[in-house]
Write a structure and sequence with these properties.
Length: about 475
């Protein structure tokens, strides 16, 4: 499908200036009507970010939105046909949406895979303690963070508590009107001489990321435990839980507050979790708007990417294989592992993940000629990894040419990008795991400033171009 073609003869009537590659700015390519579409699209995105602060809430939003657009759980379908729209989910933390294509499944699928998890502070199994008359929660950070960014900012608590009887209790504190917030305290500069003399990585220890949660002691309680007991009393009154219930809880401290417009021109979105929920939302809207795809289109929303894609809800699990098998057994009388393997061998994918944009405050970490820029459109990243391209998918030339052609044919503004200078650092995505199944795949997503910070920045223009990319890919 992606064989290259040899060109014969000489290029005739070609101006020298037409031979050069020119970067484009999305805002300079769009008219007033499209500009309004960009801003309107960003409003729905900001709402999604504000509502979806955890993997579970993201999955709920995805499923609810999909059902409102005619998608139904696969368990309700005995057989499938072209045009059917289905939902496949598992464990409340991973979900796939699919539209059955006009061609048979044996011709492969068009997959866009993004991840719904984001860096955060998780509560430990025994989090609650009292010290110096204050109540605190112990945390263990999840994913790659710069610890100092999580100090002295308002934090909210989101997640679930599973009681011993199996009852699941939803917890949301800090993002509703009138809610209190929490914080991790920092040392005042007047007394921080020793702290400020340390290297940045050593100045803030993971065990110091303790959440301040209260300070009123229980009346007639023991001095050393009275604050802790009062907190337990408040939690029991609100949620009916005891201290032991924390052991079977998933509680995440995340930045409090909504997604914001950034800039006097409101051209950017600032919010927590845009890595990778910007690609989650844009690929969700892309498949919802995909019209009669030729191949079966699948939007995959996966968990655990920030900690290596491990576990049964991560990309290294078998959810994708099982999801496509759920489709296969409803399309064919006989379906087996070999059929699944052959499908993946003929399939194409976009690993929908963000990349670093050039930051004028920190220019030295990126090689500008091969770096992505805000407002430059959706980013194709041929490889990620570290140093000598370790732990990466290195997309082949034929497939990148196919993606380029698809973008150009649909007048989508796009650019290329790398995740830092050679030997500067690096990172990974789910692309290499998708390719190991047999897919042709390349990373394709939105450039960000302040990636993995409590407030990340994305251009509304790039967000919209990513949506257009995923929508057209599903129909390519």
């Amino acid at each position: 499908m992606f064989r290259s073609k040899k060109l014969g003869g000489q290029l005739m009537n070609t101006r020298p200036e037409d031979l050069t590659y020119k970067r484009k700015n999305v805002w300079q390519q769009v008219n007033e009507e499209t500009t309004k579409q960009i801003f309107d699209f960003a409003e729905g995105y900001k709402y999604f970010l504000t509502k979806g602060k955890t993997e579970r809430t993201c999955v709920r939003e995805i499923i609810n939105t999909a059902q409102s657009k005619g998608f139904i759980p696969v368990q309700q379908c005995q057989n499938l046909k072209a045009g059917d729209k289905i939902i496949i989910s598992s464990k409340g933390k991973v979900v796939a949406l699919a539209i059955i294509g006009q061609k048979g499944l044996d011709m492969g699928i068009s997959l866009v895979g993004s991840h719904i998890d984001a860096p955060r502070l998780d509560l430990k199994p025994h989090p609650l303690y009292q010290d110096e008359g204050l109540g605190l929660f112990k945390t263990h950070y999840y994913g790659g963070i710069k610890k100092y960014q999580w100090l002295a900012i308002p934090l909210a608590l989101h997640g679930v508590i599973c009681k011993s009887n199996g009852q699941l209790v939803d917890v949301t504190i800090g993002d509703n009107p009138g809610d209190p917030v929490f914080t991790v305290t920092d040392l005042l500069p007047h007394l921080a001489k020793d702290q400020m003399a340390k290297k940045l990585m050593e100045a803030f220890e993971g065990e110091q990321l303790n959440l301040l949660i209260g300070g009123i002691p229980l009346q007639n309680g023991e001095k050393d435990t009275a604050v802790k007991l009062n907190i337990l009393k408040l939690l029991h009154q609100k949620y009916g839980i005891t201290e032991e219930d924390f052991i079977s809880a998933e509680l995440e401290a995340v930045p409090a507050g909504p997604a914001y417009d950034v800039g006097l021109d409101r051209s950017m979105v600032g919010a927590y979790g845009q890595d990778d929920r910007v690609c989650v939302y844009t690929s969700l809207q892309g498949i919802l708007d995909a019209n009669q795809p030729t191949r079966t289109a699948v939007a995959l929303f996966i968990d655990k990417e920030e900690i290596g894609s491990t576990g049964n809800t991560g990309m290294m699990g078998r959810f994708l294989q099982n999801a496509v098998s759920e489709i296969g057994v409803r399309l064919y009388n006989q379906f087996n592992a070999l059929a699944l393997y052959n499908i993946f061998e003929k399939s194409i994918a976009l690993s929908a993940d963000v990349t670093a944009a050039v930051d004028p405050n920190f220019e030295g970490v990126l090689e500008k000629q091969n770096a992505a820029h805000l407002c430059g459109g959706v980013v194709i990243t041929k490889y990620t990894g570290v140093k000598g391209k370790y732990e990466t998918n290195d997309a082949n030339a034929e497939y990148i040419a196919f993606i380029r052609n698809m973008l150009n044919q649909n007048n989508i503004t796009w650019q290329t990008g790398e995740l830092g200078k050679v030997d500067q650092g690096g990172g990974g995505t789910i692309a290499h795991m998708i390719s190991e199944l047999g897919f042709e795949v390349v990373d394709c997503g939105v450039p960000l400033l302040s990636m993995h910070a409590p407030m990340e920045i994305a251009s509304k223009a790039d967000i919209f171009e990513s949506y257009r990319t995923y929508k057209n890919f599903f129909m390519a």
